[in-house]
Amino acid sequence: MTPHILLVEDEVRIAQLVELELSDAGYQVNIAHDGQVGLELAQAIQPDAIVLDWTLPNLTGLEICQQLRATGNAVPIVFATAMDDQPHRQAAMAAGANAYVVKPYSISDLMETLTAQLPSAAA
User: What pTM was estimated for this model as a whole?
Assistant: First the structure.
């Protein structure tokens, strides 16, 4: 079964690049460029994992993570963000994030982190 990834990234060029790389690697990808849309998609499509930016229009990545976890949603969440400081990392992990990758990141690092979080990696 093809892993389904939700990418919540407001920077269109980054989203397109990541989508292309993930698609080439065999993932099915949905993109949201807005936090509220990202939250709604996460609830509607039930992806296998979410790649989540921190700074987004309407809802932050942290708010999305908190709201998903508050409803019992255990989908793996990988933050992919420019917020490269300990308070942001700690807040993300405390909110229930599974991993944290800092921009600029290599696609291979993101994919390795993402793959490790997918349910099939635990099998």
Answer: 0.94
Domains and CATH numbers, the chain: 4-117 (3.40.50.2300)
Encoded tokens for 7: 């990418």
Amino acid at 113: T
Q: What is the pLDDT of residue 122?
A: 47
**Cβ neighbours of residue 101 under 8 Å, at least 6 residues apart?**
78, 79, 80, 81, 109, 110, 113
pLDDT at residue number 121: 55
DSSP string computed for 61-111: HHHHHHHHHHTT----EEEEES--SHHHHHHHHHHT-SEEEESS--HHHHH
Which of helix, strand or coil describes residue 4?
A: strand
